[in-house]
Automatic annotation (TrEMBL):
CDD domains: VOC. The lineage of its organism: Bacteria, Bacillati, Actinomycetota, Actinomycetes, Micrococcales. The keyword Metal-binding applies. This is Glyoxalase. The keyword Metal-binding applies. Keywords: Metal-binding. SUPFAM superfamilies: Glyoxalase/Bleomycin resistance protein/Dihydroxybiphenyl dioxygenase. It comes from Curtobacterium oceanosedimentum. InterPro entries: Glyas_Bleomycin-R_OHBP_Dase, Glyas_Fos-R_dOase_dom, Glyoxalase_1_CS, VOC_core. Residues 6-140 form the VOC domain. Transmembrane segments: none annotated.
């Protein structure tokens, strides 16, 4: 029926756009490409898809991760509800995962261990965003591992 070529974009619902934007900007090491978060206090922004509801987005390698600030303050992510379980971002190598772990440590961001998932051909590193959304960084498992 369809021959997917990857994802065009994924948008996460967040509670605090300033906090989430800062987190992802630090994680990715770049500012958002599209950003309407400075208009978040405009009462009409939450109804305006052209201004992405007051959100922002980060684009890398032809794919976009957007942040939509419409969740109620105090709401927390629940992977056991319908919708998103986790978001996995691909990185180039296992060395990239170890470098990411070091940079996360330096930034004071809690994360899991670099873990070899042999049956899946992946090595991963997990962390949580400010709304407790599980993010996974994944690299291909080296053939000689």
């Amino acid at each position: 029926m369809v021959d997917p070529q990857g994802f065009a974009h994924v948008r996460l619902t967040v509670t605090d756009i300033r906090r989430s934007k800062a987190f992802y900007q630090q994680l990715f090491g770049m500012p958002p490409g599209s950003d309407f978060s400075d208009q978040i206090d405009d009462p009409t922004i939450h109804d305006d898809p052209w201004r992405t509801y007051g959100g922002c987005s980060f684009t890398f390698h032809g794919q976009t991760l957007g942040l939509r600030p419409v969740a109620q303050a105090g709401d927390r992510f629940d992977p056991d509800r319908v919708g998103l379980d986790h978001l996995t971002l691909r990185v180039g190598s296992v060395d990239d995962l170890h470098r990411a772990a070091e940079r996360l440590d330096q930034a004071g961001i809690v994360h899991g261990a670099v873990t070899d998932l042999e049956p899946f051909g992946l090595v991963i590193l997990s962390l949580q965003d400010p709304d407790d959304i599980n993010l996974v960084l994944a690299a291909p498992r080296p053939p000689d591992a």
